[in-house]
Amino acid sequence: MTYFANIGKIQFEGKGSNNPLAFKHYDPNQVVLGKTMEEHLRFAVAYWHTFNANGADPFGNATMVRGWDKFDGLDRAKARVEANFEFLDKLNVPFFAFHDVDIAPEGSTLAESNKNLDVIVAMMKDHMKQSGKKLLWNTVNMFSNPRFVHGAGTAVNAEVYAYAGAQLKKGLEVGKELGAENYVFWGGREGYETLLNTDMGFELDNLARLYHMAIAYAKEIGFDAQFLIEPKPKEPTKHQYDFDSATTIAFLQKYGLKDHFKLNLEANHATLAGHTFEHEIRTAAINGMLGSLDANQGDLLLGWDTDEFPTDLYSTTLTMYEVLKAGGIGRGGVNFDAKVRRGSFEVEDLFLAHIAGMDSFAWGLKAAAKLIEEKILDGIVENRYRSFKEGIGADIVSGKATLASLEQYTLQNNPIKVESGRQERIKLMLSEVIFSV
Ligand code: XLS
Ligand code: CA
Ligand code: CA
């Protein structure tokens, strides 16, 4: 069965090509700073946006009718598996990512849901073996079902908390069965609306308890995926506990969890938190916490998580610059947590959107590599901090300085000389690099 009959394998045709169904920048075999583009970028397709979304929004019904929609229940789930592997093959993407409920229908009991999962996971395992495609990460959806209305790991009701634990246990087993490289925790309902009915400290203690149980169980079953927490400041709850990189790192530190986790950072979540994506990545990287990326972009004029495909070259360049400077993405990858707009309802749009995202990231990677090879920004940064290389600056860095020695230095050093940061010039230099590759 084919779901994308009119589309062949997407090939790299280079900058001169005007074939919309071809890569202009993403050449998986091109070596950039010692690694192929495929190794640097480790692209993944997000199951939920690609195979589950149908274009419905709060104001209108589905606009997207796919080949798999002619089936129901488990048959539709099986059809989606076929579609996923055909899509990955045609797009030449090595990884995919899913929530439990994306791949198999929820039953009316936990046992029934798990039985459905077992059927689909066995089928996926076969497809993965045949195709060589891999699972970048899996996760469990503990936010859609009404039982999670007041949270899962931060639920106000112990029975709901127990259900979350049981669902998480199965998620870890599924990850192990499919050899997931990472396992993601995104706390969709782990937050609150009003403190008037919320015990924040207790909820956070409980969330940490759940994470400790997950670490123990993964160890018990020999599931060695990298655990990732995905910060988001708001939506669906008003105050999400894992607000941003810094907040999440502080939480992990407080509860003795830091060595067991890294972060899965998403561009649109960064902007919702009032940060750039590169700020979130740098914050993770300087704390040894950079795990994986959810690639997308928001809209400056809209205040919510629009999950658009990433096409902003300034952002993809600065993202890849941070990744390269951090030594790469490791076991993580670039997962397109992005959805085609409601008006882009044709099946071909799924390909065009991913091509746009992949080419934008490949372009960003090339520009970032040039920034590094030619030491364009490094030189500027080094020069700005050069006074810490000798004299009083070197004393500060080495720990020799005291407030008294700083005072003595300052009494003799008058006037102080400060220099311009030159950011307007530097931003134009960045543009020149992006448009030169
Ligand atoms: C929602 C999140 C979610 C996570 C996985 O905003 O991005 O999709 O990536 O649960
Ligand atoms: Ca995400
Ligand atoms: Ca999102």
Arithmetic mean of pLDDT: 98
Name the strands of the widest sheet in spatial order. Answer: 5-6-7-8-10-12-13-14
- H/E element sequence: EEEEHEHHEHHEHEEHEEHEHHEHEHHHHH
Helix content: 40-55%
What's a concise summary of this model?
This protein has 437 residues and is an alpha/beta fold.
If you had to describe this structure to a student in words, what would you say it looks like?
By secondary structure, the protein is an alpha/beta fold. Helix content is 46%, strand content 11%. The chain has helices at residues 37-41, 47-52, 73-91, 100-103, 110-131, 158-177, 200-221, 245-254, 267-272, 277-286, 313-325, 347-373, 376-384, 391-398, 403-412, 423-434, and strands at residues 11-12, 22-23, 31-32, 35-36, 43-46, 95-99, 134-139, 182-185, 191-192, 226-229, 239-240, 261-266, 290-295, 334-336. The strands form 4 sheets. It has an 8-stranded parallel barrel with strand order 5-6-7-8-10-12-13-14, surrounded by 4 helices. Strands 1-2 form a two-stranded parallel sheet. A two-stranded antiparallel sheet has the order 3-4. Helix 6 (158-177) links the parallel strand 7 (134-139) and strand 8 (182-185). Helix 11 packs across helix 12. The mean pLDDT is 98.
